[in-house]
């Protein structure tokens, strides 16, 4: 809004600094210059390749338990959300959350964090 107003005033021949406009409208100047950056999720091959190899080497039973079925029908897609914790030495505990498609054994997502909270697992 501030940038649009600034450009409109400049087009009309009125010079007002962005700092003044921000002060007049009680808007922090940093919000005018902020540019959100959203990068694509990164798959780190050194983690993804060994995890996928381990899943393919030692498959498990992909049949969902009774809580996964809906009125006796098997769901279209069964997913597993696994959470593993590991002591990393001086950095303390680390949690690795994985989401795996049971039918294709494909790793759909992963998230590493220092806490093992449910919100971190849902980030995977």
Describe the structure.
The chain has 124 residues and is an alpha+beta fold. It has 5 helices and 3 strands, in the order H-H-H-H-E-E-E-H. The chain has helices at 2-11, 18-24, 29-33, 45-57, 118-123; strands spanning 79-87, 93-101, 107-113. Strands 1-2-3 form a 3-stranded antiparallel β-sheet. A hairpin with a 5-residue loop joins strand 2 (93-101) and strand 3 (107-113). The model is unreliable at 62-73 (pLDDT under 50).
Detail the poorly predicted runs: 62-73
Q: How far apart are the first and last residues' alpha carbons, in Å?
A: 35 Å
Rounded mean pLDDT score: 77
Strand content: 15-25%
Number of strands: 3
Structural class: alpha+beta
* Tally of helical segments: 5
C-alpha Rg (nearest Å): 25 Å
Set out the fold topology.
Layout: H1 2-11, H2 18-24, H3 29-33, H4 45-57, E1 79-87, E2 93-101, E3 107-113, H5 118-123
Antiparallel strand pairs: 1-2, 2-3
Which labels suit this protein?
3-stranded antiparallel beta sheet, 20% strand, 124 residues, single chain, elongated, alpha+beta
Condensed summary:
The chain is α+β, with helices and mostly antiparallel strands and 124 residues long.
